[in-house]
Hints:
Elements (H helix, E strand, L loop, with lengths): L1 H22 L2 H7 L7 H52 L5 H9 L14
Amino acid sequence: MTNVLLFIALSLAAYLGFVLLALGQARHWRAASEAAAPGRIGKLALRIAGGVSLSLALCLALFRDGPSFGALLWTTVISVAALVVALTLSWRPRLLRPLAALVCLLRPDGTQEKEGNNR
């Protein structure tokens, strides 16, 4: 049971990592959210959070299966997670809207203007 929960956590961390990396790009942000895109610092924070999430996924894989199979499991899971994120962005980018809204709530300036209103 613990292995199953660790695998689910590993998969979610990998998916979240790639989603955060994708939302750090203006094109993907516009596809997923109607809010104004984060500034340079916000994009950097999204990319760092994505990297931390992928690192957490690696730690979970190594903890679950050790260094030999854990590394193989991690590379497989991040490959599948990257594919799922690419498919999500291609077919249903609005599914990422709740995560983008959460990022907007965590902004230090608290702005949530629509993209067309800040021109």
